[in-house]
Amino acid sequence: MLDPILTLTDVVVSFAALRAVDGVSLSVPRGQRRAIIGPNGAGKTTLFNAIAGAVPPTSGRIVFNGHVVTGLPPHRRSRLGISRTFQITNLFPTLSVQDNMILALRGSSSSRLFSLFGSPDMEANEARRIATALRATRIADRADVIVKEMSYGEQRQLEIAIALVTTPHLLLLDEPAAGLSPSERSMIADVIRSLDRDITVIIIEHDMDLTLGLVDHVTCLFEGRVLVEEPPEGIRRNAKVQEVYLGMPRHA
Amino acid sequence: MTINVLTSEPLPPAGTGGLSGRTLVIAALIVAAAAALPLVLSSYQVGLATEVLIFGVLAMSIDILAGFAGRTSLGHGAIFGISTYVVVYCSTQLGLHPAVAFALGVVAATLAAAIFGLLAVRASGVYFLLLTLALGMIVWGVCLRWSQVTGGENGMRAEARPAILANQNTFYWSVLIGTVIVSFAMWRLVRSPFGLTLRGIRDSESRMRSLGYNVPLHLFIGFTVSGFFAGVAGAFYAMFNNFVSPSTVALANSVEGVLMAIVGGVGTLFGSFIGAAAIVTLQNVVSGYTERWQMILGLAFVVVMIFAPEGIIGKLRAMVPRKTR
């Protein structure tokens, strides 16, 4: 196996009596496209939050790119190169796409944060990184549009652009295509497929056809545990996966 | 001011960081027109114009927080008044030079704002409103009761104005110069990288945090800087009025500043001068006709809120692109 960029060892996240993530171990090789699937309540988003730092694990260990990040707050992880999108769109609605990108970029590089009376202009390298991320997500021509005036699909694309602009090593996509029309979905799929192969991508998505066509490897969670880990072709035929998704009660 | 705001919006695209040529020309014309006012106005009206400038700066300082950081402060009247008190006290009781008194007033207001900021920035929405209101009330209570220093209910009379500015017109012009300088500074502030982070906080605090921003620290700095500008307005007011009493730090003063910002248009910055002009004029003209001028003022607010909730400038801005489309 290639050297893993992300390794989880026995990660547990519990809320009071509920063990939302219950001893998950997984290892994601550098550059892989990995899907995390599972029925509602399987612990997918909680696992994401544990990786991104929004909810620190109760126990276990998370190693990212050689750093133990188990207890680090989100912004420290984002500086190490972990970037995420949110299931619920969380943008700056009254600002332009450009300003959204500037804020995303400067959050991780604090050089000009407290420039109280400085010029609003971008530096050349900032402009370049923003243009690259907007091109990668196919909204380069929308830079001056106010976010609330964009379609929901475009907002999802911007959500990915914001995650990309800090040039992460690991991109976590939480249901990037949720609530989108079929044509908007294929746009998102296109965007994800054409991402730089140096970026490791982990994606949570309910749309199986979309997901299985995008990824190299799939982890199926069920009740907080890893149920199956297989390439997409195997997942389609896997009896256990079909069972948890279709809910066939064999021994009820 | 109206024209200035309309043309400087939408903000020029990145790459034209400073003033664009046309905006500069229009701003210069407006300032020139404002400077020419004493030539046509009576000395009473020049006094009103001075008041408009001073309260316009106060309303602008409130708009930095209300319009750009999404935090409406009901404590800025008190911050403004602290500066007024300190300037009056320093020039009468301590006999300091007016310039020194002015500087000390601004410093005191900035310090007060820093303390207000420390206590209030973790709150938002109505809690922020209430906290700043309560802090302002404390200042009012202190000014009312600490009568050895503040003169209590009677207030303090002063000759805070330096001799060379004794003339009404000269004083107006010096306030105008001060106003132009601090307005430019505030305009730069809201457009700066720091101003952008404030607008980001207004739009989505949670996203700002997840992007790695220290939200309370940004709000604290924003509040303190805004208090500095309110302090400048308060120091000018001391020299304008030559008198200070607890009503200067009272809640009514804070509310008036907020209303000016709202009437002009929250988030428009320069709309504050329109709001200040509207309210100061209304107060002084209507009170000449009826004792119930406050009722008329109240009705005027209701009308503005119904027909132009985005404020006068906000309304005009919304109308202009429709015509040109």
Quick rundown:
The complex is a heterodimer of chains A (252) and B (325). Chain A is of the alpha/beta class and 252 residues long.
Describe the model.
Chain A is an alpha/beta fold and 252 residues long. Chain A has 2 domains: 1-81 and 169-252, P-loop containing nucleotide triphosphate hydrolases (Rossmann fold), CATH 3.40.50; 92-167, no CATH class. Helix content of chain A is 34%, strand content 25%. Chain A has 9 helices and 10 strands. Chain A has helices spanning 44-52, 74-80, 97-108, 124-136, 152-164, 182-193, 208-212, 232-237, 239-246; strands spanning 4-15, 18-29, 33-37, 59-64, 67-68, 82-84, 170-174, 200-204, 217-222, 225-230. In chain A, the strands form 2 sheets. A 6-stranded mixed sheet of chain A has the order 6-7-8-3-9-10, with helices on both faces. A 4-stranded antiparallel sheet of chain A has the order 2-1-4-5, with helices on one face. In chain A, strand 9 and strand 10 (225-230) form a beta hairpin. In chain A, helix 4 (124-136) packs across helix 5 and helix 5 packs parallel to helix 6. Chain A is globular. Chain B has 325 residues and is mostly helical. Chain B has a single domain, classed as ABC transporter involved in vitamin B12 uptake, BtuC (Orthogonal Bundle). Chain B has helices at residues 2-7, 21-40, 43-68, 76-92, 98-120, 125-145, 147-150, 168-191, 193-203, 205-210, 215-241, 246-249, 251-264, 271-289, 293-307, 311-324; strands spanning 156-157, 243-244. Chain B has a two-stranded antiparallel ribbon. In chain B, helix 3 packs antiparallel against helix 11 (215-241) and helix 14 (271-289) packs antiparallel against helix 15. The chains are: A alpha/beta (252), B mainly alpha (325).
